[in-house]
Amino acid sequence: MALNSTLQNIMPLIGNALSAMVLQVIFALSKTMTYFVTFLFNGATFLVSALFMLRLPSLVPERVGERKSTWNEMKEGVHFIRDVPFLRVAILLSVSLNFFIAPFMPTYIFVAKYRFNSDPSLLAYLEVGFFLGMVAGSVLTMKAKIQRVGIAFSCFIALASVMMIPMGYTHSKVVFWVMNFFCGLCIPPAAIPINTLTQLKTPDALRGRVNSVLSMASMVVVPIGMVLSGVLLKRFGITGTFWYMILGLTVPSLLGLLNRDFRTAVMEGSATN
Question: Which of 128, 119, 113, 127 is nearest to 24 (CA)?
Answer without folding.
Answer: 119
